[in-house]
Amino acid sequence: MRIDKKCTIKRIITTILSVLIIGFIFWQSMKPATESSASSGRVVAFFNNIFSSLGMGKPFTQGFIRTCAHFTEFGLLGSSLCFMFNAYTDESKVSFILALISSVLIAICDECIQIFSDGRTFQIIDILIDTAGAFLFSVLTLLLMLLIKSKKRKVK
To answer: Which pTM value belongs to this model?
Structure first.
């Protein structure tokens, strides 16, 4: 793979994005349970207010919102890692595998951080939810990368 200015910029941007997402995830895990619960409560209230104003009741619970947050955070992480590793290797399938392995390791670290946060615990189910989010988003990213590569080949 030739390293040119465009490639270097891709590497820098995707690496910074991945580091920022990891930082956000770890920052959320360092919050005490009371603060984390209050944040989730505000999100639940926000969405329930929207649905309630549409006459649809209040369908969201804190558990559901927290599960969606885990899934989405790690989904975005998996996708950004997939793009990042692809910027370094230019191998879509290798990037997918590296992104998934990295996401699982980060999920485990994330849960370990929570052991030291007041009122928080290590939960295997959260690692599974995180992994599911990373897997789904990484698969979608892999498919997108393969589609882009096939279009580039047709143009040449």
So the answer is: 0.89
